[in-house]
Amino acid sequence: MTNKRTIAAAALAMALTSVIAAPAQAAGKEKCYGIAAAGQNDCGNLAGTHSCAGQSTMDKDPGEWKLVAKGSCESLGGMLKAEAKKRYDAEQRQNR
Predict the structure, then answer these.
(1) How confident is the model at residue 1 (pLDDT cuts 50, 70, 90)?
(2) How far lies 93's CA from each of 31, 60, 62, 87, 89, in Å?
(3) Which residue positions does the secretion signal occupy (predicted)?
(4) Could you give the CA distance from residue 31 to residue 69 in angstroms, rounded to a whole number?
(5) Mind listing the pLDDT tens digit for each residue in 29-86?
(6) Pair 21, 46: CB distance under 8 Å
(7) Phi, psi torsion values for 49, nearest 5 degrees
């Protein structure tokens, strides 16, 4: 029984560490849209068609993003969320 509790405690500690470390890793970073290669996005997209990393299907999709150092997005050829959202909305209106 003690062994099971030790394993459970270790698993809980690892889970909490990853949850606490995530915001610390994101400090000083920003979402940069339109720079991710296919399959290299960091999380969900503007369209809401997926919510996981690595699910982008085309290079430089303006709805997909990667975390980059704050202030470096535009120099990498990307867009911040407000601009990406405007472009996405404009494309959706065109496709209707």
Answers:
(1) low
(2) 24, 20, 15, 10, 6
(3) 1-26
(4) 9
(5) 999 999 999 999 999 999 999 999 999 999 999 999 999 999 999 999 999 999 999 9
(6) no
(7) -80, -15
| Tokens found for residue 1 | 């029984």
Residue 13 burial by CB count (10 A; 0-12/13-18/19+): exposed, middle or buried? exposed
Which CA distances in Å does 7 have to 3, 4, 13, 28?
Answer: 6, 5, 10, 34
pTM: 0.68
DSSP label of 79: B
Phi, psi for 18 (deg, rounded to 5):
-70, -35
Handedness of CA 28, 31, 35, 38 (dihedral sign): positive
C-beta of residue 41 within 8 angstroms of C-beta of residue 33: no
